[in-house]
Amino acid sequence: MDNQNNTSPVAQPSPLGVGGEPGLFGLTKRIIPCLDIKDGRTVKGTNFVNLRDAGDPVELGATYAQQGADELVFLDITATVERRKTLSELVKRIARHINIPFTVGGGIKSVEDVSVLLNSGADKISVNTAAFNSPELITGIANAAGSQCVVLAIDTRQEEDGEWYVYLNGGRTKTDKKCFDWAKEAVERGAGEILLTSMNHDGTKAGFALDITRKLSDNLPIPVIASGGGGKMEHFEDVFQQAHADAALAASIFHFKEIDIQDLKHYLKERNIAVRL
């Protein structure tokens, strides 16, 4: 793995680039359905608990690709807790049925894990708890596969003191590290993108966490994906216009057909937000 060069399949960036279209690299705002996977099924909860079944992840992913999603994120939400690897076989199934970039996360602890998943068809890798516990993992993946492959997922909660703190292990473990400080360190170590999930807002459909999203978007040189709280089309408009997010991620509103991706994109386009139709 250490001897990989840019001709290796592991080192290739997503064919569509960061921004979802050739040559744009972030100019268009991206809509990203997220599929949380437990025991091979897509699930969705509220505030990280009370999970319910939402369908087969490969079928859902293929449907979203057809509907115009820019990218997909697949997260094995119990992989870290249960101390097992994200299944590369699932990634191979996804790659066979989906023609847009997709990110895979959950239980990734080494550059070798990353190599297996990228070679199975994933475009990017999301790391969370393992990267926090061993920050050199970020640098290792970036050196081996390129920063564009490294998505740092941050689960954060705003506490009574008003500060946003990092949580680990699927939101089960609080740390003393502040969200922005960890994000800044991750960028310096080679992360190419931040997936920011507000635990306060997750599953509530009451809107994204605009303040912390804006802080990261305005002060970091890499794209920020906002996650947690999307429930109405207006929420996506707000997170792009007010919080300057590069992408917005949601789950249940897409899984349960509360918002259609094409309808959402036309809504955003009408409000002068650049999206890929």
Automatic annotation (TrEMBL):
It is found in: Cytoplasm. Keywords: Amino-acid biosynthesis, Cytoplasm, Histidine biosynthesis, Lyase. Pathway: Amino-acid biosynthesis; L-histidine biosynthesis; L-histidine from 5-phospho-alpha-D-ribose 1-diphosphate: step 5/9. Its main location: cytoplasm. One of its GO terms (cellular component) is cytoplasm. HAMAP family: HisF. Heterodimer of HisH and HisF. NCBIfam families: hisF. This is Imidazole glycerol phosphate synthase subunit HisF. The gene is hisF.
